[in-house]
Specification:
This protein is mostly helical. It contains 3 helices and no strands. The radius of gyration is 32 Å and the shape is rod-shaped.
C-alpha cells in the first residue's frame, strides 16, 4: 500500500501543478485571504456604483439647468430683453496647459 501511495503523491503535486494549486487555494481559504479579496471586490463595485450614480445625477441636473436657462432666454426675448451671451465653457477632455511665467 505505501508503495502505491508515493507515485500518486508525486503525480498529484508534480504534474501540472494542479495539486499544488488546490493546496494553495485551501490554505488561502483557511487564512482568510479569499474573504479579504471578496471584500476588496465588493468595495470596488460599491465605489464604481457610487461614481456611476453621481455621474448620472450630475448629467440629469445639468440637463435640467440647460432647459431652465433656455426657458429664461425665451421669456427674455419675448419681452424684448436681449439675453446675455452664453458663457465660455471649459473643455474637460484634456488637462489645461501650464501657463508661462
Amino acid at each position: 500500500m505505501p508503495n502505491d501511495f508515493l507515485p500518486f503523491l508525486l503525480a498529484f503535486f508534480g504534474a501540472g501543478g494542479a495539486g499544488t494549486m488546490l493546496v494553495k487555494s485551501f490554505l488561502d481559504w483557511r487564512s482568510g485571504k479569499v474573504a479579504a479579496e471578496k471584500e476588496e471586490n465588493r468595495a470596488a463595485l460599491r465605489v464604481a456604483r457610487q461614481a456611476e450614480y453621481r455621474a448620472e445625477c450630475e448629467a440629469h441636473n445639468r440637463r435640467a439647468m440647460v432647459e431652465y436657462a433656455a426657458e429664461l432666454r425665451r421669456i427674455m426675448r419675448e419681452n424684448g430683453i436681449d439675453p446675455p451671451p452664453h458663457p465660455v465653457l471649459q473643455t474637460c477632455f484634456e488637462p489645461p496647459k501650464p501657463q508661462a511665467p
